[in-house]
Amino acid sequence: GIGGVSARGACPVGARAAIKVLAGAAAMDAAEIARLRREARVQVSIEHPNVVRVLDLDQLPDGSIFVVMELLEGESLAARLKTKGSLSAEEAVPIFRKVCDALSAAHQLGVVHRDLKPGNVFLCSDGTVKVLDFGMSKFTEAEALTQDGYTLGTPEYMAPEQCIGAPVDARTDLYAFGVLMYETLTGTLPIPGRSRRELLELHQSAIPKPFRAVRPDLELPAALERAVLQCLRKRAAERPATARELDKLLAEVPLGDPRDEDAGPSTHSRVRAS
């Protein structure tokens, strides 16, 4: 692998793996390539059941860079939401808690995701939840930076501090996670906007509406709404301090009997009052 980036013994002959080519990597200068190598080494070091494992990173003759990852079977949370619209609390909270575990493992190593969104949460066929693209998001979005000068990331999920190019930390990921949770539970974004520029401005000032204001047909646990809205606070100091702290809040959410999900399609869009 490039710069000695590889997971020792992780990819035996005959093993199946996924390969992802990083967009815009061919245009990187030497300093950016060096940063990518460092990020990849950190990614390789994150060994956690809820984080997709990076096996290797290398460069093609044309300058393109590709990452070799464990092969996953299933669908992304984004695909699940496209099909179902939203998930019930019983379906969503177990997923959220596994994402908390993944974030906690990465944050303990000083790794901030910077681009957490439904497309980067993978729901495996065996029930495992995997978070993708730790440390790689800034490189896959290289073109966006040169086009408009804004800090990298997906604007719908960017924390206020990230929108203005201020330093980011674990709480930045928790804001993005708050957007993801809000969207998963209601089927709508907490901060809608028509353009990247408008979204970056709205994340500075717009206050998300309560769940019932956007989905009056839903009856979601109040404790779950409080946890989500706390993640969406504008000031990082007012959000949960760590992913582990958020997980404790989610653990306190009262959930109905998961077997109720088998009752029919309508139970996917409604949760019993708790």
Task: Report a brief summary of the structure.
With 274 residues, the protein is mainly alpha-helical.
Explain this structure to me?
The chain is mostly helical. The protein has helices at residues 30-45, 77-84, 89-108, 137-140, 142-148, 160-163, 170-186, 196-205, 211-214, 222-231, 243-251, and strands at 17-21, 54-59, 65-70, 74-76, 121-124, 129-131. Residues 1-13, 137-150 and 257-274 have low confidence and may be disordered.
Using the 3D structure, state the CATH architecture of the largest domain.
Orthogonal Bundle
- The fourth-level CATH homologous superfamily of the largest domain is Transferase(Phosphotransferase) domain 1
Number of domain units: 2
Question: Oligomer, anyone?
Answer: single chain
Q: What is the SS-derived class?
A: mainly alpha
Helix content class: 25-40%
Number of strands: 6
Amino- and carboxy-terminal Cα gap = 52 Å
The average pLDDT value, as a whole number, equals 83
Shape: globular
Tally of contiguous helical segments: 11
Name the beta content range. Answer: 5-15%
Order of helices and strands: EHEEEHHEEHHHHHHHH
CATH fold assignment of the largest domain: Transferase(Phosphotransferase), domain 1
Q: Can you list the strand order of the major beta sheet?
A: 1-3-2
Name of the CATH first level of the largest domain: Mainly Alpha
Low-confidence stretches: 1-13, 137-150, 257-274
Radius of gyration from the alpha-carbon trace, in angstroms: 19 Å
Largest sheet: 3 strands, antiparallel
